[in-house]
């Protein structure tokens, strides 16, 4: 019985066809969702980067304006008088000039919230004028320590004692040190307050990094791990962009913008859940779309299973019962669709089949049994004639083997004439063949050797037709070994596995011609020829009647010189 596999069923093919249709549509939806998601992410990234870049550009312009005021102060009349003409000036003039200079420094400080203090260190008079503290003795450490390193470009912001300065000086030819320096201290608190404007979400922050300093709206200790992680995740620091980084179990969205003029890097970081909040609707609709697609697939599969697969399966099961010989099958139904019509036709077919079974099937079985008995009966006279001739010969010459010969002959004919059953065990058939070989050994004495193999235990109880092995051995004696004066050899071997058994009979008799071998093979293959059904053809037909068309007798040339006959028995599935 051939079982329908699930992958070959109509139901599975319908579902696969539907999946082939729905999967591209679902993939298109996923692609549209992904494209929209990437677009929104890109717009968010552009917006946040633009904000950071705008802040740095504004800071650049402000620092540049402060530096212009600083450079303009280099040419201040009062400052230059104090540095160059202080020796010819009276104390009063010096005092008034210092006061006027302080007022200008205060004006510079007041011009920008990013200026914390403006001071001028005048070396010739050993005075320092500050916008915050006024006139004081020169702060020699600041005068010597605050200077622009070689190669520093852009705004030239200097870090001194943790503070950021803009510094410039005036130096005359021949002097080893500047006459005076103008230092503007930047207000880091103002920078921090400016960074606060970006902290729109809880857990967010902004960091301004210079080569020598870090300005953040939180303590440096709170940001050290975050800064390190951000800098490691950034591929290109000199370009604006965004990155994602993880600190502990929390994901951060980081915007970075660089200013080559200020030599500063601005970092803005946000918890990822806040920055991706606008994308939640996209995810919600994506889940809705996915669930809807799954529901459609489930509903379609269930409908197909209920309205097509189940009725078809019921019909297939009923056909399988008929295939197994159950002719009492009836499909009860109340449907008026196409399957209802098929069920009605099936029930009518089974009814008609039951009516015809006695006329066709049983008649065929009886004819096969009659033919089988007819084929069996044809074997008995063939050996009987030869036996009588042998007894006559042995009696005439007074052969001492006459008694055991007649005993074996009696056992032989008792077996042949027993008609109580059509089939018997293979072990009994083999024992009968051995009795026949004993009879032939007595006849041919020492001219022939016979080697009988052992039958596999699993096949000893196999039911086979009577007289299928002995005639093959008899054929080997008559046509192959009978004329050999010595050295005759007959081999009977058994080869079996779980599916089939092969009984191999070989002899080293006189060579058979190719034409004779071809004629013998053709007689086995053409069952339609009206020829005498004796010998090998007799056995071939009987085996096929019982074990099917794959079984039978196979004739070929033996490697030991004579004929090789293979009796092939293919086991039928239950």
Automatic annotation (TrEMBL):
Transmembrane segments: 12-34, 284-302
Keyword Nucleotide-binding annotated: yes
InterPro entries registered for this protein in UniProt: Bact_2-comp_sensor_kinase, HAMP_dom, HATPase_C_sf, Sig_transdc_His_kin_internal
SMART domains recorded: HAMP
Ranges where the HAMP domain occurs: 306-358
GO molecular function, one term: ATP binding
Record's protein name: Signal transduction histidine kinase, LytS
Source organism per UniProt: Ruminiclostridium cellulolyticum (strain ATCC 35319 / DSM 5812 / JCM 6584 / H10) (Clostridium cellulolyticum)
């Amino acid at each position: 019985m051939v079982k329908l596999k699930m992958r070959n069923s109509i139901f599975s093919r319908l579902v696969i066809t539907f999946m082939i249709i729905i999967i591209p549509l679902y993939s298109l939806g996923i692609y549209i969702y992904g494209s929209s998601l990437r677009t929104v992410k890109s717009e968010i990234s552009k917006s946040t980067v633009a904000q950071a870049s705008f802040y740095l550009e504004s800071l650049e312009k402000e620092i540049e304006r402060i530096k212009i005021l600083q450079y303009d102060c280099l040419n201040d009349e009062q400052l230059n008088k104090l540095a160059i003409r202080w020796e010819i000036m009276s104390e009063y003039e010096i005092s008034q000039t210092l006061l006027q200079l302080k007022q200008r420094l205060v004006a510079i400080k007041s011009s920008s919230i990013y200026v914390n203090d403006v001071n001028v260190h005048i070396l010739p008079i050993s005075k320092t004028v500050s916008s915050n503290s006024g006139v004081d003795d020169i702060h020699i450490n600041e005068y010597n320590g605050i200077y622009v390193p070689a190669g520093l470009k852009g705004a030239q912001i200097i870090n001194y004692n943790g503070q950021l300065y803009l510094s410039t000086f005036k130096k005359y030819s021949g002097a080893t040190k500047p006459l005076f320096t103008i230092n503007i201290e930047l207000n880091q608190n103002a920078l921090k307050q400016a960074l606060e404007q970006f902290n729109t979400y809880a857990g967010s922050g902004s960091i301004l990094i210079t080569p020598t300093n870090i300005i953040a709206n939180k303590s440096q200790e709170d940001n050290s791990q975050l800064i390190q992680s951000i800098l490691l995740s950034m591929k290109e620091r000199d370009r604006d962009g965004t990155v994602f980084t993880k600190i502990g179990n929390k994901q951060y969205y980081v915007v970075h913008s660089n200013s080559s003029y200020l030599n500063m890097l601005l970092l803005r970081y946000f918890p990822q859940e806040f920055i991706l909040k606008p994308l939640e609707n996209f995810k919600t609709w994506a889940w809705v779309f996915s669930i809807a697609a799954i529901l459609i697939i489930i509903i379609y599969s269930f409908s197909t299973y209920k309205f097509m697969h189940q009725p078809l399966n019921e019909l297939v099961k009923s056909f399988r019962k008929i295939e197994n010989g159950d002719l009492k099958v009836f499909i009860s139904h109340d449907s008026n669709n196409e399957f209802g019509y098929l069920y009605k036709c099936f029930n009518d077919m089974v009814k008609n089949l039951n009516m015809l079974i006695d006329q066709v099937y049983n008649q065929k079985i009886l004819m096969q049994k009659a033919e089988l008995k007819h084929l069996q009966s044809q074997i008995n006279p063939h050996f009987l004639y030869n036996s009588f001739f042998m007894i006559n010969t042995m009696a005439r010459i007074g052969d001492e083997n006459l008694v055991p010969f007649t005993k074996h002959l009696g056992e032989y004919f008792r077996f042949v004439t027993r008609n109580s059953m059509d089939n018997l065990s293979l072990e009994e058939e083999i024992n009968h063949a051995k009795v026949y070989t004993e009879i032939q050994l007595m006849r041919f004495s020492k001219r022939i050797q016979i080697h009988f193999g052992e039958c596999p235990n699993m096949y000893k109880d196999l039911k086979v037709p009577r007289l299928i092995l002995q005639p093959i051995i008899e054929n080997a004696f008559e046509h192959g070994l009978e004329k050999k004066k010595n050295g005759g050899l007959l081999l009977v071997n058994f080869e079996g596995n779980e599916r089939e058994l092969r009984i191999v009979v070989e002899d080293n008799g006189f060579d058979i011609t190719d034409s004779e071998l071809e004629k013998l093979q053709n007689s086995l293959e053409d069952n339609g020829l009206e020829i005498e059904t004796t010998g090998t053809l007799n056995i071939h037909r009987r085996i096929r009647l019982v074990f099917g068309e794959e079984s039978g007798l196979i004739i070929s040339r033996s490697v030991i010189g004579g004929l090789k006959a293979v009796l092939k028995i293919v086991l039928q599935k239950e």
